[in-house]
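Example 5.3 — Immunoglobulin V-set domain-containing protein
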Amino acid sequence: HELSHLTRTIVTPVFVLKGRDLLLKLHADPPEKFLFVDWKINKTDLLVRFKPGGEATVTGRVQFGENKFSVRLKNVQEVDSGLYSAVAVTGVNKLLTEYKVTVQVSPVELIVDQVDSSSESCDLLVTCRTHNSNISSTFRCVDWFCSQEGGERPEVTTSGASLQVYLLNNVIICNHSNQVHWTQDLNTAKHLCSKHAGKTERRQIPDKFVVSAFLCCKETIVCFLSEF
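Solution (predicted structure tokens):
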């Protein structure tokens, strides 16, 4: 029987950071006298097959989970995104669980495209970039008082992630967040404006920090601060 012929279950959305592990476990018990429990990807590709006693052959990145018939997929990549289904194989197959898995990537980079400075003012053109999205903004500094043309620039990507570039206490901040991770890349406007007029700067700036936070649970954020 194909999965499309089975009774549908509620699809559980799961967001996981690239490089982390994905745990798949059953939401319903198999029926009596079932032959196998199959985990499939996108309804057709067999990930692992369990016998009634929980025995299975797992190799490579696929490992046993903590519970019976559960699977842990190690070091997930973007290509691992998709629909994961658990099916009890019987005379009439039963769909037990479905996960809609989205593997998300979170690196962010603040690139200084251009610095035009004079004795009176300084104009900075910067780009805030992730692997699949970017936004640009211009900043103007006069006597070390800086402002952002057009105000804060937010953008929501197709995957539901948020990308922002804004100014705080004369620091230009590029912020990226998604359902599983939050990270920033920062540059001090004062240091950039001290460079020669028209010179292009591309991540060769001191006074730079990268801040990352993993959303490990609903109420806890663990932050890491690195200086270059």
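Remark. Residues 189-193 form the longest helix (5 residues).
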